[in-house]
Amino acid sequence: MPNSYDNPFREEQLKQSSKAEHMKWKAEMIRTHESKIRANDAILVLNLEKNGQKNYIGGATFLEIFEAWKLGRKVFLYNEIPDNIFKDELAGINPVVINGDLSRIE
After folding, report:
1. Nearest to residue 69, comparing CAs of 101, 105, 29, 42?
2. I want to staple 5 with a disulfide (CB 3.0 to 4.6 A). Which of 1, 39, 48, 51 is the partner?
3. Kind and range of the H or E element at 43?
């Protein structure tokens, strides 16, 4: 599950309250990627539309994808690779694009 699954608005709250607290929280979230990914066989990235961007993958999610790839875990994308700054790197990682069909996760 994503690091902020239990409180999906935590990051926005921290951004509004204190830059220092937000940066501290963000660093901790990045540190927890490896242990969470290592404990699983694969990751499923829900790259949905965000702020008008189709199949959005942001920086933190890209880092999680990279960590999974580095650890030899399977990477599944819910939708196609987005046309963004990470497009070439994502193609190189060669994720399995399931196009919304969860039965394709193996």
Report:
1. 42
2. 1
3. strand 42-45
Q: How far apart are the first and last CA of the chain?
A: 18
The residue ranges of every structural domain in the chain are: 10-101
User: What is the three-class DSSP state of 10?
Assistant: helix
- Between CA 61 and CA 1, with CA 15 as vertex, the angle to 5 degrees is 35
Over residues 53-86, the pLDDT tens digits come to: 999 999 999 999 999 999 999 999 999 999 999 9
CB 24 within 8 A of CB 18: no
Q: At what angle do helices 59-70 and 19-38 cross, to 10 degrees?
A: 30
